[in-house]
């Protein structure tokens, strides 16, 4: 009975008042211990949850938190450079999952709500609970799930204990080996009344990723050459006569070599003071620094419809072969990330008597990424001609350069150059007070009341260079060869599937060094000569456009949300027909106030120039910052029932309403006029008045625990989500002076314009694209899971065991083929089946675990391929392993491997032949030792 009333933040270990989903933490070791602890937490819980626990202090099941979470039924992950970065739960992506650290909101460094698990080293975490059903005391925000990451507590550990781990990390693609280290020390003193734990983690990784990509297929294209074009290839055949019309045309051909150095440092500290058995104070802190230096060298050919000389199409009217005039582009890109995450909290757990428990908690968390402004994108090109062929099965296309050599540095010319990006910051202040009272009258067990507040502010600062990016457009200037470095991708690039004549040898360069040269008098003088202008003309134009100096852009914005909440939970327990049951019933009321600020130019009029040609008139040439406010409130009920049908078989039922708030980027108040031409008046922007996504959830599950070494579980679920946010177009009236009376027929400068129905005497109507609460969707699925240890076998055979699970999901917003995509404006990205199979052996000093994960084909984006088309990520499977050997009771050595079979991540478009991406991160390995004391 006492397990029903343990308060939400007991020792800051969980995000919810426990009910019986909170067990006393037990330090376990080994694979079996970790699986047993997870099963015990799941079995005791009154809500639907799954858990992972560390095998020992500083020994998480995988080298990455997200990689371990994907072993849980219903959870799948997305990867960045081969490392798990974000999670999808029951078909709902990262922004729909509320991530907590010790029951508190932890800030993220992105512009949205999705949490990047690559920010936190796995060794710092002792476990994680994934709440799949909700209860009133759980902080709102997760339609998919609430994920609570936990760090160890010194008073739970008890005696003095330390851990030191060192390992060498090797990347199969880069061939580089880098170090990682972890240390933890925990102790108690003052007769066990005080405890202190500190830990530190350092990881260095030199990664490489090989990839091919196409920026999309242009629909309804007409292809063919223009009159008079030869470009070194020969005279035209049928100039100005299209070869084909209404075809799907590939936008480009890109070969990318990404090299990345990532350095991650993590620190945690926890202090606990328990002056009496009734009162415990806990203070804990976390710091994580994640710095990435990433450069991408790209060899590319940008296909233009009017440069195609010969072509062939397939039955779907996809262009599958062509020869084309153009330029071989060599692109250097940089995407640095300088991310800091901090979290600090204090907690009081007070039991003044046997019936009352009071828990108070205050916390703050900050995250920032100031690396975005250091991004750049610089293009150098060589005029040439190519032939290209796309196999019908969507495998890697074959491209051959026919004209000028792309490995001759004398052919290289400057083209496009820009720099800048976005810096983000998030700050969270949070507090809560909970009180639990044991009623213990009949079936009425306890009641819990709580209040909470959360103040979150997210800022996105955008930096750029203005209008200077196209100073060298058109390949006018031959570059000095000193800037170019030969680059050979190697014949085994992407497994050697690009063909014998693939363009694998070209040039890379230092982007910032070249950018400095492009702004120099030497380079600008060549442009004056090229254009036949007076000396200094281009330099003056570049200066007028702001040069290559970074400036804060008007697209910057900030969004602040202040939420207050109150909840009540009641717990009941009893028996029916000799079957024990427990029931949790509650409701959570939340009220959120939103303030958003951004910059735009105020439209005051639309000026008519000629028939069909109009231009906007603004109050000022400089964007003006404005702040808007909105608010909403919701009541979120929840019900959880558990029935112990037999000693070993139990059933659960859950019903609840949950919400996920809109992305801050969608709530920015910026609005821009994109086109003011007659008949094509269009605008776009954000929407601070967005309502949150609201989901009605039902869950039913059966769990069987017949033996200590065996458990099976099956669950079905459904989620009905309303107010789903989609980018919709609607007519919006903008207030203007309409000085020329465009709503009536009149004469301007001796020319007659006709009345335009888009205008009234004081308004202009634009078709405006912005995020709106437009859609509804339903997702449903089945989860199956089981674990079995072969303890009954004789001798060393008893060390074997297996755990497996499968998740099958479906939705009325699911898109799986081109027929379903047609006419769609909304679909649920990330929805797909997933499977896990883990075999392990643990006997004596030897421990081995081999994990297989598969994720079926799923929609990544309905309109994200660069030409407005869908992106489908193809079925992907991966094998990981870990083996350790205990040399002494305190020292073990280990080896770990990730993606052992070096699988490719492949993305395709509308049809099977439309290969959009092929990414290879290779395998990586860790070898090291771990010592405890």
UniProtKB/TrEMBL annotation:
It holds the Pfam family Plug. GO terms for cellular component: cell outer membrane. InterPro entries: Beta-barrel_TonB, Beta-barrel_TonB_sf, Plug_dom, Plug_dom_sf, TonB_rcpt_bac. It comes from the Bacteria. Residues 416-900 form the TonB-dependent receptor-like beta-barrel domain. Keywords: Cell outer membrane, Membrane, TonB box. Its main location: membrane. It is found in: Cell outer membrane. Residues 47-143 form the TonB-dependent receptor plug domain. Belongs to the TonB-dependent receptor family. This is TonB-denpendent receptor. It comes from Asticcacaulis benevestitus DSM 16100 = ATCC BAA-896.
């Amino acid at each position: 009975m006492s397990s029903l009333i343990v308060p939400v933040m007991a020792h800051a270990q969980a995000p919810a008042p426990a009910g019986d989903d909170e067990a006393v933490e037990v330090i376990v070791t080994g694979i079996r211990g970790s699986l047993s602890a997870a099963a015990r937490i799941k079995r005791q819980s009154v809500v639907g949850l799954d858990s992972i626990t560390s095998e020992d202090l500083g020994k998480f099941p995988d080298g990455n938190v997200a990689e371990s979470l994907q072993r849980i039924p219903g959870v799948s992950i997305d990867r960045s450079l081969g490392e798990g970065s974000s999670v999808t739960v029951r078909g709902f992506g990262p922004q729909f999952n509320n991530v907590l650290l010790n029951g508190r909101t932890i800030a993220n460094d992105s512009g949205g709500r999705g949490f990047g698990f690559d920010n936190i080293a796995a060794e710092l975490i002792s476990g994680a609970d994934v709440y799949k059903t909700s209860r009133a005391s759980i902080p709102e925000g997760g339609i998919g799930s609430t994920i609570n990451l936990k760090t160890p507590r010194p008073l739970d550990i008890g005696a003095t204990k330390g851990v030191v781990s060192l390992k060498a990390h090797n990347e199969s693609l880069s061939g580089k080996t880098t170090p990682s280290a972890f240390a933890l020390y925990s102790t108690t003193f003052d007769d066990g009344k005080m405890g202190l734990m500190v830990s530190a983690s350092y990881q260095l990784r030199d990664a490489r990723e090989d990839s091919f990509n196409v920026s999309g297929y242009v629909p309804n294209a007409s292809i063919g050459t223009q009159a008079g074009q030869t470009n070194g290839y020969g005279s035209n055949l049928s100039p100005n006569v299209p070869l084909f019309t209404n075809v799907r045309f590939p936008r480009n051909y890109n070969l990318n070599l990404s090299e990345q150095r990532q350095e991650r440092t993590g620190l945690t500290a926890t202090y606990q003071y328990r002056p009496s058995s009734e009162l415990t104070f806990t203070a804990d802190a976390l710091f994580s620094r994640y710095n990435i230096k990433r450069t991408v060298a790209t060899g590319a050919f940008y296909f233009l419809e009017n440069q195609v000389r010969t072509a062939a199409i397939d039955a779907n009217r996809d262009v599958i072969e062509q020869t084309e005039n153009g330029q071989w582009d060599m692109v250097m890109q940089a995407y640095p990330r300088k991310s800091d995450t901090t979290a600090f909290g204090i907690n009081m757990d007070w039991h003044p008597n046997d019936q009352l428990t009071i828990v108070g908690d205050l916390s703050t968390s900050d995250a920032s990424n100031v690396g975005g402004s250091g991004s750049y994108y610089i293009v150098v090109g060589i005029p040439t001609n190519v032939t290209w062929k796309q196999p019908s099965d969507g495998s890697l296309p074959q491209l051959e350069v026919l004209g000028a050599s792309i490995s001759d540095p004398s052919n290289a010319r400057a083209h496009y150059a820009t720099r800048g990006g976005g810096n983000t910051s998030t700050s969270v202040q949070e507090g809560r007070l909970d009180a639990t009272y044991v009623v213990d009258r009949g079936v009425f067990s306890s009641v819990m009341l709580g209040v909470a507040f959360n103040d979150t502010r997210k800022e996105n600062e955008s930096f750029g260079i203005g209008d200077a990016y196209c100073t060298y457009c058109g390949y006018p200037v031959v570059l000095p060869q000193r800037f170019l470095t030969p680059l050979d991708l190697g014949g085994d690039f992407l497994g050697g599937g690009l063909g014998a004549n693939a363009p694998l040898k070209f040039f890379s360069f230092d982007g910032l060094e070249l950018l400095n040269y492009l702004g120099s008098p030497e380079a600008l003088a060549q442009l004056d000569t090229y254009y036949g202008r007076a000396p200094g003309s281009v330099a003056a134009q570049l200066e007028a456009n702001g040069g290559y100096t970074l400036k804060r852009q008007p697209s910057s914005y900030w969004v602040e949300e202040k939420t207050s909440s109150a909840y009540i939970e009641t717990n009941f327990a009893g028996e029916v027909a000799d079957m024990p049951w427990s029931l949790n019933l509650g409701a959570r009321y939340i009220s959120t106030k939103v303030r958003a600020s951004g910059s735009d130019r105020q439209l005051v009029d639309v000026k008519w120039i000629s028939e069909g040609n109009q231009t906007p008139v603004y109050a000022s040439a400089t964007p003006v910052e404005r702040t808007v406010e909105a608010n909403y409130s919701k009541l979120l009920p929840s019900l959880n029932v558990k029935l112990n049908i037999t000693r070993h078989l139990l059933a659960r039922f859950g019903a609840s309403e949950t919400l996920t708030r809109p992305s801050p980027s969608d709530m920015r108040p910026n609005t821009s006029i994109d086109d003011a031409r007659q008949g094509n008046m269009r605008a776009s922007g954000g929407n601070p008045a967005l309502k949150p996504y609201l989901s009605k959830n039902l869950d039913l599950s059966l769990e069987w625990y017949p033996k200590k070494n065996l458990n099976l579980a099956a669950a079905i679920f459904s989620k009905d989500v309303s107010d789903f946010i989609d980018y919709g177009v609607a007519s919006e009236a903008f207030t203007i002076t309409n000085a020329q009376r465009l709503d009536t027929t009149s004469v301007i400068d001796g020319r007659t314009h006709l009345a335009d129905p888009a205008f009234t005497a004081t308004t202009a109507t634009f078709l405006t694209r912005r995020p709106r609460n437009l859609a509804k969707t339903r997702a449903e699925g089945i989860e199956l899971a089981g674990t079995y240890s072969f303890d009954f076998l004789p001798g060393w055979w008893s060390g074997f065991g297996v755990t497996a699970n499968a998740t099958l999901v479906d939705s009325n917003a699911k898109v799986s083929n081109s027929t379903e995509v047609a006419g769609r404006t909304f679909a649920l990205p990330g929805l797909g089946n997933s499977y896990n199979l883990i075999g392990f052996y643990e006997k004596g000093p030897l421990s081995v675990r081999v994990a297989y994960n598969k994720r079926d084909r799923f929609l990544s984006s309905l309109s994200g391929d660069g030409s407005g088309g869908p992106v489908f990520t193809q079925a992907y499977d991966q094998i990981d392993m870990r083996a350790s050997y205990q040399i002494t009771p305190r020292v073990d050595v280990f080896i770990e491997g990730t993606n052992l079979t070096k699988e490719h991540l492949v993305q395709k478009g509308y049809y099977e032949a439309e290969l959009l991406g092929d990414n290879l991160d290779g395998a990586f390995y860790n070898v090291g030792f771990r010592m405890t004391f």
